[in-house]
Model the fold of this input.
Amino acid sequence: MGVTDERLILVPSTSKQNHRKAIFLDRDGVINRKLPEDYYVRNSSEFDLLPNVLDALAIFRDLGFAIVVVTNQRGIGRGIMTEKDLSQVHDFMKSLLRDAGLELAGLYYCPHDKIDDCDCRKPAPGMILSAAKDLNIDLSSSFMVGDSVADIEAGKNAGVRSVRICQTLADYDSYEVFPSLIDFARFLQNEVSCSSKKLI
Ligand SMILES: [Mg+2]
Ligand SMILES: [Zn+2]
Done:
């Protein structure tokens, strides 16, 4: 897991100084504990941060990445929860982050159901592309991190490198696989420190 792979070596961007690099994060299964299929996090008591997530976000921040959450929430489209429920959950999540000195650059969600055929529900790239436009993000120096195939596909469709959080080896087609967000963060930290040493 997280073995050094030449595809992951970061190339410092000099020509796109006006653009920020970002880590696009799926929410359920990456930031907070995913509930069983067909269950949705509808209130703060159901929102459990996964271990070491705050440390991982701090590493991304310190490496200069904007942190952007992109999450499918079709519980809304299915009438199982409301946008107000979601916004309260997100306020709670942001308060946990704020207490740790962390801030999201953006938070995008798709409220639609699969049958709505929207352009924001992952694997569609809509949320990533909107964020890139809104926040002036350089997609070629950014990553999409998620635990599902739809996340990986969304990243590919948007033209960012995809990383999958996955504890079991499966038939995946992602850029790289790590068992948890902190493992990816530490890997990235190591890559950056190695490439900056090379620059000296
Ligand atoms: Mg997920
Ligand atoms: Zn949508």
Summary: Confidence is low (pLDDT under 50) at residues 1-7. The helical segments are 53-62, 74-77, 83-99, 126-135, 149-158, 181-199.
